[in-house]
Amino acid sequence: MFNFIARRILFIPISLLIVTFVAFVVLRITGDPVEIYLGIESTPEQVAVLREQLHLDQPLPIQFLIFITDVVQGDFGTSLQYDSPAMPLVLQRLGPTLQLVAAGLCIAFFGGVLLGIACAVWKDRVSDFAISSFAIAGQSMPSFWLGILLIQIFALDLKILPTSGTGTWQHLILPSVTLSMFIMPNFVLLTRTSFIETVTEQYVVTARAKGLSEGLILFKHVLPNAINPVLSFLGLQMGRLIGGSIITETIFAWPGVGRLMIGSIFQRDVPIVIAAVFVVCLAIIISNLIVDIFLSVIDPRIRLK
To answer: What's this model's pTM, rounded to 2 decimal places?
Structure first.
């Protein structure tokens, strides 16, 4: 187990370095933050001073080397919009994002698994067809359209939930449901397929021959073996879920990292964007590590990979 975890941890700095390098290069070659920050009325002297302050007068490899040296010391630079260190600003927004992602993940995972089990138990019946059709339709539904639709129905028409913002648990319902629909259909279909394949295994047939009840067979023999691919899929979907939270936070004015990142991209606030990308990437890596460890506990064969 120790070697398995150590191998996973060893790749974390490499992944963070690659993601940071790509984000840094893309932001540098797609626009000049000095022009956006100072505006068209800036003097050449002001431009020269700010470019020197941001090390933009140096070649790109030297800029990245200076940046990485500062990052190792915990300094991601100073935000051009807020005139304060970038990383503390991002960490202030991390709590609401984690709250939204956790709520959306719970709804997507537990709802998807339960609906997938229902489809497998009632295979080829009307309920199976209805749930599977709902899942397929959900895969094609844009999250921004669903968010606006939920606001129209539950906030504007029925007036039972707030339209946007944060503060109470009611504010979390619409954003978390919108975010969960981003991946719930995948959990439904994957769980259905995994359970249908598992119930045909020989040990399940043997359990039925012994006279065990269907409920006991389902939860004692089928569930532990069928849930492995679902949990593996959960780790792979964390990136999509956090990426989808950017759109959801924008729609519902949720004060998270995604909304901060979008605003900073339009303002070419490079320190904020890179700090946000770094935090999001680290969150995805850690979540995948937790899933890998959990899977290795359930199935020791994974530790050998």
So the answer is: 0.79
